[in-house]
Structures are given as C-alpha cells and as structure tokens.
Amino acid sequence: HIGGKGSVSAPFFDRPADTTTIITQMATRYQIPIVPAFVYREDDDTYSCNFSPMILLEGDLSDENVLRNTTLLNQITEEGIRKKKSQWFWLHRRWRPCCEK
After folding, report:
1. Residue 2: inside a domain, yes or no?
2. 87 in a structural domain
3. Does any domain span residue 62?
4. At 98, is the pLDDT very low, low, confident or very high (cuts 50, 70, 90)?
5. Number of domains the chain contains
6. CA 44 remoteness from chain centre
7. Which of 31, 45, 69, 95 is the 20 to 30 Å CA partner of 58?
C-alpha cells in the first residue's frame, strides 16, 4: 500500500487501490519499454517465467495520462495473477479503508 504523493487511486481487481506511479512516470519520461514478467511454480515443482509483450507507454505526465497508464499496468498485473490465482502473495494489505471511497 502506498498513499499520498507519488500514488493514484487506480482500479485493481475492480476496487480502488492506491498505486505507486513511479514506474509509469519513469517509463513515460525516459521512454523506457516495460516487459511484464510473471514467475509461476509448476505442478512438478519447477518454475516457469512468462513474458508478456513489451509496452511503450505513450503520452505526457499529465495526471490523466499517469492514471490511465497506471491503470493499464494494474490490468496487466491482474492478468498475470489470474493465470495462477493460488500463487498470488502480497506482503501487505493491498486495500485499506482509505482507498474505499
């Protein structure tokens, strides 16, 4: 959970969640490509690493664009989690009452 400056309230699994904007800001400002990667434990106790297509965020650093791109990254994260829901582990409370407006 991150709140305040440096975050936006972006949907994550259909709930508002304070989400850091640092990845969106850096990737947009410096035109750094993002390659989403997800590691899953397989039934035979091996691991697979799945890479999604590279993304190059477009637009400027306006509040609207930062929210749009941060929401996009949350959606990609959701897709990765949905592939193996039982393996999703978060180190802190992802949603807090402050986000539920």
Report:
1. no
2. yes
3. yes
4. low
5. 1
6. 28
7. 95
Tally of CB atoms within 10 A around 88: 14
Give the per-residue pLDDT at 88. Answer: 87
Q: What is the mean pLDDT of residues 69-83?
A: 97
Quote the CA–CA distance of 39 and 30 in Å, as a whole number.
27
Q: Which residues contact 95 (CB under 8 A, 6 or more apart)?
A: 1, 12, 15, 16, 17
Position 4, amino acid = G
For residue 67, being part of any structural domain is answered with yes
49, 6 contact by CB (below 8 A): no
Start-to-end Cα distance in the chain? 16
Domain that holds residue 24: 7-99
pTM of the model: 0.85
